Amino acid sequence: MQTVAILDFETTGLSPAQGDRATEIAVILWREGQIVDRYQSLMNAGRRIPSDVAALTGITNDMIASAPPVAQVMREAAAFVGNCPVVAHNAGFDKRFWQAELAMLGSRADHAFACTMLSARRLYPHAPNHRLSGLAQMLQLPQTGRAHRAMVDAEMTVHLWHRMHDDITRNYGLKRVDHALMSRVQVTSKDKVPTLLRSLAQAR
Fold this sequence. Notes:
Elements: E1 3-11, E2 22-31, E3 34-42, H1 51-57, H2 61-65, H3 70-81, E4 86-88, H4 91-105, E5 113-115, H5 116-123, H6 132-139, H7 150-172, H8 179-186, H9 193-203
Helix pairs in contact: 3-4, 5-7, 5-8, 6-7
Catalytic activity: DNA(n) + a 2'-deoxyribonucleoside 5'-triphosphate = DNA(n+1) + diphosphate
GO molecular function: 3'-5' exonuclease activity; DNA binding; DNA-directed DNA polymerase activity
Enzyme class: transferase
């Protein structure tokens, strides 16, 4: 049985290359359709949160001031993820912060990332948009709280990941939908995804 780590960051901005830092992380371990564990923490990286970002996320500078240091949180998060492959929505964003924060600690960060946004673009090409909130609304996924907080967005990504698994199983008869398969889907052109999934179902 494969366990994947579904994670989400909140940050001070869009790019660690521009000096932005993580302010919150949430990680959910998901195995065979079930949440088996979760980790969440604010973190203090010594970087002020711009007012527009604080308004979006609800994470304030006062909250960060009393949060544990970023080094502690990222070490805990890395230990929690272990060797699991990782899933995130708009994974390029989260992967950049994951790698940047762990690089500062000298820790390995070579985890394979799958992206629910890229996969959703292939599986739901006619969705009005492929933002997490838009897909959640279209697919009527459970919403557990305010968007742009790490655990809420991670939970929504879990529901989307699960729904995509169910839709592939139902529509193509594939019983085994894993991280590697979803990673193939996300880099296949949308018009070729049905052929790919049908061929994999026949091969199995």
